[in-house]
Amino acid sequence: MDKIAIISDIHGNLPALEAVLDDIKQRGIERIYCLGDLVGKGPDSAAVVDVIRQTCQVVIQGNWDLGINLPQELPAGIWQQQQLGAERLAYLKELAFSTDFYLSGKLFRLFHASSRSVYHRVKRKADKKERLAMFHNTEMTGTPAGGKRPDIVGYGDIHIPYLITMKNPSEKQTAQRTDNGLMLFNVGSVGIPYDGIPQACYCILEGYADRTESAGFSIQYVRVPYDIERAVKQAYTVDMPEAERYELEITTGLVHKS
To answer: Does domain 2-252 bear CATH number 3.40.630.190?
Structure first.
C-alpha cells in the first residue's frame, strides 16, 4: 500500500515542523501534502516556507498564506511580511486552492478551509448542511470529469482534528451499492493545535494511490511531541510581536484571543 502524510497549519513553528518531518521519515513515508497556513503567528515563517518547498509534493494555500500578501497595519503582520520577503510572498500568493486524487477507489479532495474560500471557516460542530457543502464542486475547486463529487474531504484551518461519516443524500442506497457514504476529516495543526493537546498533529492516508477500484484504506492521526521551550525562546529572541500570545497557545494547546 501507499502512504501519504498530510500536514497543515504550521504557522512559523519550525521545531514542530522538524519533529513531524522526522516522524514521517522514520515511518518511511516519502509523499507529503501540506494544506496551508505555513506562515504567521510563529517566529520562523521564512524557514518554514523554505522547508515546505523542499519536502512537500503538494502545497495548498491557506488564509494566512494569501492574507499576508495584503497590506498590513498591525505590527505582527508587518513583521511577518518583512521576515518573508518578496520572493516567498509571491510563492504563497500563487499556491493552489485544492487537490483531488484517487486512493483505493475513493476520490479524495483536500483544501485548507472549505470548498468556497480559504477564509470560509467550517467548525467541528457545523450543521449537516454546511458539512455537506464541503463536498460540492465549486468555482474554486473545479469539477472532475463526469461531474463527480469527492467521497472524502480533508481540510485544516480550525486546528482541531476530527473525523465524521455522513450519508450521501445524492445517492440511493441499494443492496448492490454500499459505498455511498461520505467522510469528512480535519488534519489538525502541526504548529498550533487548539484541541488542548500541546503536541504537533498530522494525518497519514494509506491505500492504493491512483486506483479507481475499491480497496482497503485508512486515515491515521499522529501526535508528535517537540521542543516547545525552543519554539518559545525563538519567538522572544527575535522580538516577534505577540510572542506572549504565541507562547500561551503552543504551551496550552488552546486558542487565546487578543
So the answer is: no
